[in-house]
Amino acid sequence: MKDTPLSNCERDFLLKAIEEKKRLDGRQTYDYRNIKITFGTDYGCCFVDLGKTRVMAQVSCELVAPKETRPNEGILFFNIELSPMASPAFEPGRQSELSVKLNRQLERCFRNSKCIDTESLCVVSGEKVWQIRVDVHTLNHDGNLMDAASIAAITALCHFRRPDVSIQGEEITVYTPEERDPIPLSIYHMPISVSFSFFQQGTYLLVDPCEREERVMDGLLMIAMNKHREICSIQSSGGIMLLKEQVLRCSKIASVKVSEITELISKALENDKKARKAGERCGFAESMPQERITALKMDETPVEMKNVTEKAEDIVKKYEAPPQSVPSPLVPAPGVGQVGQGQQNSWGLEEEDGESEEEEEMVVEDQPKNKLDQGECCK
């Protein structure tokens, strides 16, 4: 599936905004988008967000046989994967011209500049060396993939740790991280790519173009440089003719941007090192929610325990004791029932057995007398 092309109205609007030195996201001409660097749980896993462009770099290692021409040097291999998840313009299962161009630019930027000491990757000369593989995956494409890939690749290489190795005779032992601490790579410098886009045959210049600006640009210039202002690689595409003053101007801008990005990478690596040393949550574990209830959490308030008895006695003296009310033994409290303590009359009072029998006899004896008296009266 190919990406939807821009309409003429959109193209004219973008070019008109660039002529007026305005950009879609509100940046100035030489402004970079916000860069965010995060690390995974394992060593050598790095995520880089350049605005909405997001890439992931994963570094791995393997013991292989060296090349015949260089038996004492390790192997550095790069691979960029453009997945259709990042953009509908990327097709799965086949390498496009963009992926081939990015792979070659990364190899020139890192391998040809010799930023990594490949001789330190040799285990046994002519037999076993370490092969360092850097896989860069695009998670979201919003322009300037080369700059994001270069930042992610060099940060992942600085963060990576290879296993320790010992040699006894012809036997090679590779130790796990639990047995021996892994060893970082020997890195001389950090080359970082800075992209410049040209419009209207080089009349206008923009730094860090977004995806829509890349569609309407006439040419692209990529300069890879380290913080020592040493140019590692330079590549121009698009078929435009650039003047010497334009290239020198771009190199000066790139030196400033590279120094800022290098400082950001150093701070990110230092913060991750401190977090891992202190045993804090890092990588993917940091983004996972805590499985506990924190809604009813309260801060502890300090309680003063000095002169507690004296304060209590003063409070007791100030207030008088309330009068004690004695409940009547005859009338029980309402709603209280007692079982097995005698009969109750209609008023709820208990009666003794002896008194109740005598009263019944008196009532029976009085009844006939009353009848006789009434009869005598009638006669």
Automatic annotation (TrEMBL):
Locations listed in the record: Cytoplasm; Nucleus, Nucleolus
Presence of the UniProt keyword rRNA processing in the record: yes
Keyword RNA-binding on entry: yes
Highest taxon listed in the record's lineage: Eukaryota
Annotated Exoribonuclease phosphorolytic domain residues: 32-163, 189-255
Ranges of biased composition (kind: Basic and acidic residues): 366-379
Protein name as annotated: Exosome complex component RRP45
Family: Belongs to the RNase PH family.
InterPro entries assigned to the protein according to its UniProt record, in alphabetical order: ExoRNase_PH_dom1, ExoRNase_PH_dom2, ExoRNase_PH_dom2_sf, Exosome_comp_Rrp42_subfam, PNPase/RNase_PH_dom_sf, Ribosomal_Su5_D2-typ_SF, Rrp45
Region of interest (Disordered), ranges: 319-379
GO CC, one annotated term: nucleolus
Top-level taxonomy: Eukaryota, Metazoa, Chordata, Craniata, Vertebrata
Keywords assigned by UniProt, alphabetized: Cytoplasm, Exosome, Nucleus, RNA-binding, rRNA processing
GO BP terms, alphabetized: exonucleolytic trimming to generate mature 3'-end of 5.8S rRNA from tricistronic rRNA transcript (SSU-rRNA, 5.8S rRNA, LSU-rRNA); nuclear mRNA surveillance; nuclear polyadenylation-dependent rRNA catabolic process; rRNA catabolic process; TRAMP-dependent tRNA surveillance pathway; U1 snRNA 3'-end processing; U4 snRNA 3'-end processing; U5 snRNA 3'-end processing
Pfam family, one: RNase_PH_C
SUPFAM superfamilies: Ribonuclease PH domain 2-like, Ribosomal protein S5 domain 2-like
An example molecular function term from Gene Ontology annotations: mRNA 3'-UTR AU-rich region binding
